[in-house]
Amino acid sequence: MFKNCKNSALYPALALIVVALSACDAEKASQAETPRPVKTTTVTAKSLPVVHHFSGVLAAQYQVDLAFEIPGILVSRDVEQGGAVQKGKQLASLDDTDHRQQIVRIEANLVAAQSNRKFVASELSRAIKLSNKGFTSETRLEQLQSLVQTAESTVIALESELVLARSVLAKTRLLAPRDGIIGVTLAEVGQFVNPGQPIVNVVTADQLEVRFPVPAVISDALAVGLSVQVRSTSGSTSPQQAVITKIAPAASPASGTVEITANILSPLLTLRPGLSVEVDITLGEQVDILTVPLSAVIKLGKSTAVWVLDPQTLQVSLEPVTLGSTHKNQVVIIRGLSQGEQVVVAGAHDLSPRKTVTVLPNSQ
Length: 364
Fold this sequence. Notes:
With 364 residues, this protein is an alpha+beta fold. 26% of the residues lie in helices and 40% in strands.
């Protein structure tokens, strides 16, 4: 553009002028930049509950190992670990072939005994009628009466034997004593099992408790009947109310902790024995604590900070803070802020030090 200029020494000077003008324009553009809209909140002191957090494991209040009362070969196991069962559902069965054959034999003998009882009773009735006419001796009557008593005793004995045999047959089926969940299976099909040998373990799903260790110094502040909150570690369910029912009398020598047991009042169906949970226990409260919303906190590597607003200049500055415990959507500020300061809680993603902002309505 300076093709006709004869003095080439002007080129560097012109270049400097262009750079200066560009810098000036950038500064004017920066000054004219529209303030960033943000929402703020005022840091105030408040009282907060002191919540202690512990890890625990869910367990069933009721669990039992189920076994057969008679020996036999296991021919079916109708449930698997973790499966839900209802009261009366068949869990497993033994080979019942011999027991059924025995019942068939007893039933046949009973039919014959009943027929014989009917026959001798008829004979006795006829003999009595003849005796009244003088045609039957007393000896014959006594013999028939004895036969009737024997036949009656035989029928009664066979009926009792049949009841017993049917009872034994029923014991070849292992049934769920109540609604629950199969904890573990302890025998396999084809295995010979003895009376009392555990086959499956059933636990309740609607009566759960949580067991968790606490430091001995914390256990001294706990009491049976104290309410606690139980949360799944995944956070997929709402907190569950529980009540402490047992406090171990002494601390474990290995860990120095005391085991606490709490019953969950109305457990959700998604909770299962063996699930890891978090337990929150509230003991007292802290006063004059400064907090800010979690949305106000900015992470800078391993450090944290907040944008603090100067209400006079409407400019922000980044102030490092030390965080404490979290309470719902609030976090405790241990160091870095003072009561009455205003911090940015929304719109902080596009801020820089000394940037001018405009405070949106509904800021606190």
